[in-house]
Automatic annotation (TrEMBL):
This is Dolichol-phosphate mannosyltransferase subunit 3. It comes from Halocaridina rubra (Hawaiian red shrimp). GO terms for biological process: GPI anchor biosynthetic process. InterPro entries: DPM3. GO terms for molecular function: glycosyltransferase activity. GO terms for cellular component: dolichol-phosphate-mannose synthase complex; endoplasmic reticulum membrane. The gene is DPM3.
Length: 134
């Protein structure tokens, strides 16, 4: 499928170029020879909202008894607490990621020494100018 899109903004052209799209320039018009996927333009907010919709839409239908069958009747309680379980898992994964990154955090000893040296020089400079420091 060939999609011909006309771009007048340089940012759109640069974005497509970074995404690996093949562009054809004819005069002042720029055409994309490949279809633009929705994920190319989705922000993180849109990704999260899409995921929430895909999970909470069917969940709402089951909880409100719009969809009712043998499976939903049998596992109704599990389906009812499913979003709570997802939030708990999200929290545990977030804590695990934060703990891992804190554990692997690099110390910058050289930068700390440089900063201490700069503070010492600044104090000496200020005392020469007449400022009394504690």
């Amino acid at each position: 499928m060939v999609v011909a899109l006309i771009f007048s903004e340089p940012l759109a052209i640069e974005h497509l170029w970074e995404c690996g799209r093949r562009l054809v320039c004819k005069g002042d018009l720029v055409y994309s020879l490949f279809p633009i996927h929705l994920t190319d333009k989705m922000t993180k907010l849109m990704e999260w909202l899409t995921g929430a919709f895909l999970i909470l839409g069917p969940w709402t239908a089951v909880v409100s008894k719009t969809i009712q069958n043998e499976f939903t009747d049998k596992y109704y309680i599990a389906i009812l607490i499913f979003p709570v379980i997802l939030v708990a898992i999200f929290g545990l994964v977030s804590v695990a990621i934060i703990a891992y990154r804190v554990y692997n955090f690099n110390d910058c000893n050289e930068a700390a020494e440089e900063l201490k040296t700069q503070i010492k020089e600044a104090k000496e400079d200020l005392t020469k100018k007449g400022l009394k420091l504690d």
